[in-house]
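A favour, since you know our structure tokens better than I do. It will help me judge whether the discrete encoding reads sensibly. The space below this message is yours for that.
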Amino acid sequence: MGRTFENRKLAMAKRGARDAKAFTRCARQISMAVKAGGPDPDNNTALRRAVQNARGVNMPKDKIQGAIDRAAGVGDAVDYQEVLYEGYGPHGIAMIVEAATDNPTRTVANVRSAFKKKGGNLGSSGSVAFMFDQFGYFKISPSAGEVDELELELIDHGLEQLEEGFDDKGEDVLVLRCARDDFGNLQSGLEGKGIEVVESGFEWVPQTTTELGESESDEIMALIEKLEADDDVQRVYHNLE
């Protein structure tokens, strides 16, 4: 009984930390979108996408609106900017770290420290990105339709890949990918079919992957966890198999 209770407490704590991280990431996406295109989602595609992503992780409506208001100048606003860091983890694994920060000096110091402590090295701009391609992605419910049928219907809208995956809550989703320039076309195709999007955005996909043993892979995961623990870090991409 006692162990079961402790396990439940631990699981709840991990879920709380995961939700807090997701809310922080979404709030910063909303802030940057408002700064770039204004506070009206109907006239700001990036903000509409950011709000959609926030709803996808069950971010409360008042927190979403609060993030919009602060970015629009209602209350204390923080000016975030997107920064991309590149480097190599242990065993030569290529890594890209996306961050949203109001203090790049602090963030780069934290990222460099994480790489160093976990056996990696932070590189210069362009040192790793050439090994990745950037794609637009959309995550939708598996109930949206049969995979083969969706592929046929959306290929003319720029769909390049459709596969099963997971959302930030660990739930099953279908992941649709397209070239960055086809993002708007695929979004229009999904909207035209009335398919609700759980999450969307852009991601870095490795051109090739590297397979490591269990202990070596654990070292990479330790570095990823260290990086993701930083509130400024939004996403970490790598070429580990």
Notes: The chain has a mean pLDDT of 90. The two ends are 39 Å apart (CA to CA). The chain has three domains: 2-71, 81-123+208-238, 131-206. DSSP finds seven helices and eight strands in the chain.
